[in-house]
Amino acid sequence: MSASSSVTAVAGTNIALVKYWGKRDVGLNLPATGSLSLTLDRLGTRTTVAFDDGERDRMILDGKPAGAAETARVSAFLDRVRARAELARRALVTSENSVPTAAGLASSASGFAALALAATRAAGLELSSSELSALARVGSGSAARSIFGGFVEMARGERPDGADAIARPLPEGDGWDVRLVVAITASGPKAMGSTAAMTHTARTSPYHEAWIASVPGDIAAARAALAARDLAALGAVAERSALRMHAAAMAADPAIIYWNPATLAAIAAVRALRAAGTLAFFTIDAGPHVKVLCRAADADAVAIALRAAPGVSDCVIAAPGPGARVVENP
Length: 330
Prior knowledge:
Number of helices: 9
CATH topology of the largest domain: Ribosomal Protein S5, domain 2
Number of domains: 2
């Protein structure tokens, strides 16, 4: 196929219910463990890639020229696409996030999933979902999961080239009427990026190996809960996985602490809801924000309780969403 002038793709962010925290190969973003996540409908990225005759790659992020580091990261990713497509042209990348960048809300997951699909299509490539997942992972480890909608499992893989470190959808979760209520507990980017924090944790935390060893059992438990549509069981795994991940990071030297007082207040609100009979379970990624898994019928009540927690500035109610898809292909 010949390269198209411009292709636009969208992808939803995903939130890991069973976390991965650590890489066996930083350059290829190969995870040290598997993971299990939920792709969301409300939060994500819309990206347009246009290969042209420019002298260099350019990137517009949320209406403004991207910084040098962001542009370099995207350009290096595009180099992989160009090599595969035997294409030399530079590109203009225009990207808009409906989730704050670098804030611990997985903007890189939706960002690189959308970029992988838009760039390959614009370059004339038709990759399978598995190939797109492997490509997106090189840009951001969690982006491999945003290629797919709903509940998704990411394999750790064994091959050094990463060909088997890919995600796959979990259809047993299709149609489950759950919600993820996102409590915003801070503004601005987080203090330390995920890759740097993972590397630091692996190098200095005495809990790192125990964390790695705990993940396969959590994935098996999460899969079983998903098959049984057992929200309480899935929620228990999600909370356990998040707390263990953050414990490993907090035990690093020096400690990595993403939480703030509002994070703790939101956790307390979730526990109070559960004590009162509402099935609600929290998870926290590499950032201060708290995401709460609940039934669709309880989502409004959960959001009201979270908004009342000191320091919580806003809440977003998200449902399971679709995978990455092309929305405009002139």
